[in-house]
Amino acid sequence: MISNVGVLAAIIESGNFSRAAETLGLSPSGVSRALARLEAHIGVRLLDRNTRSVSLTDEGRRFFENVAPLLSGIENAVVLTAGATETVKGRLRVNVDAFFARMMLAPHITRFMDMHPDISLELVTKDQLGDLVGEGFDIAVRFGEPPESSLVARKLAETRTITVAAKAYLKKHGHPAHPDDLAQHECILVRNSLTGHLMRDWQYRRNRKTVAVSVHGRLVVNEAGMLLGACVAGAGVARIKAIGVRDQLATGKLVELLPDWQCEGFPLYALYPSRHLPAAKVRAFIDFVVTTLLEPRSN
Predict the structure, then answer these.
(1) Going by C-beta distance under 8 Å and a sequence separation of 6 or more, which residues neighbour residue 148?
(2) What gap in Å lies between CA 159 and CA 242, rounded to an integer?
(3) Per DSSP, which regions of the chain are E strands?
(4) What confidence tens digit (pLDDT) does each residue in 46-73 have?
(5) What are the phi and psi torsion angles at 273 (to 5°)?
(6) Are 183 and 216 contacting, i.e. CB atoms less than 8 angstroms apart?
(7) S-S: 248 plus which of 111, 253, 258, 290, CB 3.0-4.6 Å?
(8) Nearest to 278 by CA among 156, 154, 155, 157
(9) C-alpha 268 chain-centroid distance
(10) What sign does the CA torsion over 271, 150, 130, 136 have?
(11) Structure letter (DSSP) for residue 171
């Protein structure tokens, strides 16, 4: 039974029978037979499959959500019994949003790989969280309040949104002294990639006063890296999560505007399926995010 469940996990993680067979050292027909035995034993169909892909049925998703922690526990027990308590190994599949991936993770990912040479890391950037279990992810790190689900949600940080511009832009156009002044500035607008809406209404708070400004600009982007690059190049004023631009602020590439006015905040969460002790590779990744990306500075 454990062997057959392991085959199911390999199919989910790899996305199809052929890659699962390669991972397990089996033939594709052997993988198919193992899954058939598992489905026959449980009495339900666990996977929907076609010639290109496989996906969990509703029953399969519920089953795997319950059994995945047990598989992680077995993996941890093997590592602990072997005496390799400090060894982090295996394939780690991580679901991240574009902002976290580009602005925070990419500049430091080599350090994580050097720290854990036995890790094989796959980073997948997605606009939405999706089905973490069904798509074979070990962990997700994303901004925003997590949806109601069976996933474990661990809050890692809270960041604020700030208004920034490059020195070259400010030299040419001057500093806004009040949020209302932004209506006279060239602002870089962001289009929500999910809804298609243009985010031009910027709100600010100070004490009990709230100010809403409808900003304008000739440049529209839908991706965080493009927003940052254009702002650093002097294309206009931008609003961006503070935690992702600490280096640019520290080196003077960007200047924070209206620091006495508060904008909305965003929490950063790690999400993973197991409610038991997470796998060592998952714990290692969370520790890396906290100690390397979040602790050195305080935004």
Answers:
(1) none
(2) 6
(3) 47-49, 54-56, 90-96, 119-125, 139-143, 152-165, 189-191, 198-199, 201-206, 209-214, 220-221, 238-241, 255-257, 265-272
(4) 888 765 678 888 888 888 887 877 776 6
(5) -70, -35
(6) yes
(7) 253
(8) 154
(9) 9
(10) positive
(11) H
